[in-house]
Each structure stands twice: as C-alpha cells, then as structure tokens.
Amino acid sequence: MSENDLREGLRVALADEPTFDIDAVVDRARTAVARRRWAMVGGAAGAVVVTLAVVLPTLARKMPDGHVAAAFPGPSATSSRDLSAKLISRVRSELPQATDVRVAPGRGTPEHARRTVRFALDSARLELVVVVHAPGSLSTDPTRFCPAMTQTCEIVALSEGRIRVVDRDATRRVWEIRPDRTVVAVSGSLPDTVGDAVLEAVAGDPAITA
C-alpha cells in the first residue's frame, strides 16, 4: 500500500471523527519507525533502549519522592573534602599503579557537585571529570545522553534498577542513573589499556553522592 493510499484510508475511516491533521500523524509515525530501525541496528543495546523507554516512566510513577534505594543512598551532608577523599580512594583502588592522585574542585551548585581527579599513570598525566547530579535535577531518560544516536553509545540495564550509559567516543563518557534519580557522570581520555573500567567503577560507587 502506498503512502497516499494510507492517507486516504485514514481520511475515510475517520470521516465522522473530530478533525485533525492526518499528515502530522503520518509524519510522527514515520519518525517513530526511523527510531525503531536505529534501535534494531544497535542490537541488544537498542533493545534495552526500547525497553527502558517503557519501564522508566512506570518506575518514576511508582517511586515516591525522596525514595532511597538501600545500596544507593541519596545526597547527604557530605562535605567537599569527604567527596574528594572518596574519589581519590576509588581511583587508587581501581588503578593501584597510579601516582600523585589529586582532586580539584569545580564549579558546583546546590544541584550538582563537580570534581576533577588528576593522576599520573605510566609517566602520563591523566584526569577524570566527575559530576554528581542530585535526584531529580537532571532528566533520567537514558536516550538523552546519546543525542547523536551513534554506534559508540550503549545503554545497559544493571541490577537494583540502575542504568548505565557508555559513550566510547574519543573522550569516553559514562553516566549512571540510580533508582533515586541521582545521575553520576564521569568522563576522561584514558588509554585503551585502562578502558571504561575506571569510569564505570567511579560512576557506580554508591559512596559517590552529591
């Protein structure tokens, strides 16, 4: 059936219904089909995107404000010094060969905390940028973090209702969306020998909170 036949069929079938823009409906359907095709190309990661698009709104409705998962406490009165110490401890745990691990504070707001972790590894100076967004201060739609819909971006459903988004572009980026709607973003240009493990470990550490 051609697109013209489809449009005409809709007009006839809905002749007695209130007037609306059929062309706009078809255009929206075409956009939805294109998005589904991209999801199929993405394989398993794409399938997760489709599933999460249905599950997340339901979770948001069921999860009352202020809900805190047992393993992932929400933001507390953690001081700047405490957060920096926890980041240093985590990086040293993941990269015991790293030296001169330091944390520089960034521009923060009541809704998010920003830190830059700098360290030396195999005579190279590297850094990670960590931003912790307080619950509800950032959209928790995982597709928001893959705006270009590129093959380098992957969405993974984890245990305990957590969601991880990994973008393996030139600068690796990892976002972890927690059940209490906290979002932890970690980025850095790391060597392939390190991979995403450090970024994922920092983003997934329940001790790292706003």
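(ticket continues) Second input and output from the same batch:
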Amino acid sequence: MPLAFSTLGCPGDSLAQVIATAHAAGAAGLEIRVADGEFAYPGMDVAARTAVVRQLNDAGITVLSVASYVKICEPLDVRAPGLRKCDGGTLTSSHAAAAGAAATDGTADGTPDGTAVAAATGATAPDAAGAAGGADGTGAAPTVGDDHDELGANDPVLGDLLAAVELCAELSAGNTPAGTSDTGNPQTGPQLRVFPGAGLEPCDVGAAPSAELAAADRLGAQRLNLAAQRARELGVTILLETHDSHPRACDIVRILAHVDAAAPVKVIWDLMHPWRYDEAPTRTAELLTDSVAYAQYKDGVRNPGTNSVTLTLPGEGELPLLAMRDLVAETLAARGISDPWVCLEWERAWHPELPPVSEALGSLTKALA
C-alpha cells in the first residue's frame, strides 16, 4: 500500500523540507494542508500555485488530497443569516431550521478534535445563535443565483468551498491519471477534504439526531450539491471527513443521504473519531462501503470515561490499526481498488510536543508491517 502523510504533521516546513521528509520515509503522496503560514494557503496566487505543482511534479509526489478547513454544515447565522437559494427556498442555518421545525411540528467540522497529548481538552466549537432577517435589515433574504460567483457571494461558506475546489484542481494538476504514470508512483485525481463543522455535539450511538443536527445535515448536503457542478467540471472529488459534529459513519451517511447520487462526493475515514465515539470499525466499514476514498491513520489511548484521546505514536495506542487497515482494504477492494493509500495524520500542528512526523511515519510503517 502506498504511503502518504498530512502536512499537519510538519507545520511551517517549506515544500522542499516536506518533500525531503517524504523521500526519506518512502512516502509517495501528500495530504496538503491549506492554512496561513504554510506553503499552501487560502488565496495563493497563480505563480505560487504553479511553483508548488512544479516542485511536486519534479519530486514525483502525488497530491493525495488538498486539506481545506471548509465546514459545510457551518450555520449561516454565523456569517450570513437568512439567505435564499435560487429556487426560492430558504438556505437556513441549523438553528433557524430547528426553530422552524419546532414551530411547525412540535419537534425541538480545523482545530484539534478531542485529542490531547498530556490531557483531554474536551473543547467543542460553540453553537451559533439563532438566525436573523435579511442583511439589509428589512427581513428580506438575498437571493442566491445560479452563477458560482453569485452563489459564493451570498453564502460565504459556499464561496469558500468553491474557491477550495478551484485551488484543489490547480494544486493537483501534476497528478497523472491512474494507469498512465511512468514514474512508478501511485496516482489519484484531485481530491478536496472538507469538514462537517456544524458546531454541535454528535448524538449518542443509536439515538435519533436532534432537529438542529438534522437541519445541519441538510445544509451541508445542500452546499455539496451546489458545488457539485463546478467540482465535476474540474474533475475534483470532495471528501467529507469523519470529524467534529459528525465523527462516525452513522453521522456522515445522514448528510450523504441528501447528496445527489451523481455528485462527486466521497469520505475520508479518520480511523480515530468513529472509534472514540463507540462505533465499531466493522460498522464504520459497512456504512462507508460505497463512499470511503481512503483512511487517515493515527493512534492513541482513550481517556477513561470520555470520548477524548491522548495521542501516541502509531502502534503504541489502543486503536486496532492492523484490523482497521484490513477493513479499509477489503472495503476498497470490493470497488476495484486493490492498493489503497495509507495516510498518516500526525497532529503536530496542534501538539508541538509530539515527535517529528518522520518518527511517526517510521512507527506507522512498523505497526502495519
């Protein structure tokens, strides 16, 4: 299985340093984190994008994915309340939609996510307040048209998503379609990581989601559907990670149930989050049979009585990494993918006291041997 790693594990490193780390570890791919202060960042100009593509291509490195911090379920009342979509329906926030549901039928996601090195933090994103009226103060919500620029202008989250799709396509330009590479390296098409990011606590295993969570599911799916056309045009697959408000496969599939079947949307299985929220790996694999693109590998020890985890080097924690790897491989093999990526997500950006990513890569290779 080809090895990749997220640049989350080497914050602040130049692209040349990252490439050197990859070559030393035998890694053929990168999950490129897009963040301020990194070699890939939001709003980077054409020259900067071209330079990154050239260096990666010269080094024979595949862009496994471009890791954005777009939160597709982020409530609209956080940044742009009360928007209307082009068919006249209201593009509501989770809070506004939940309030509407309660009135009519009586029914009431890039930071660390529950992991720590020395102690559990338990921090979660704050819930947003209720939705307001139109941006002009009249109560009339602006209309979202069909044009991508107009869509983005009226919904900042959707605007960020569309911009990330464009950036992903450009940064992945050096990837060779599968079966046509003469470098011997595995290849992949452009893939964009996004988070759910509803700012809500996940429901208990087996419990029905709250009205707010259900509304967040629909909002996230709606944004994915609106971005799907542009993603298809550019050959980009949007990857929704098991993370934050939707840490398990059972949470993710609620969003996917509202996504158009033809939309280029798949899933990144972050192995830790479903596990720490008590979803059995076999159940995660079953639910993601048709949608998983690849898995992110990490390890840790669960803090007693909580869902938080103290991170460890791969192979030194409690995650059944070998069994999980086999589940991922079996799931993808059923779809004709015989040699799936193994991608390390090492959270040194959030926990600078962790060992260097090079050490974690070595530990992962040994743990999966």
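Agent notes: The CA atoms of residues 46 and 82 lie 34 Å apart. The chain has a mean pLDDT of 84. Closing as not reproducible unless the customer responds.
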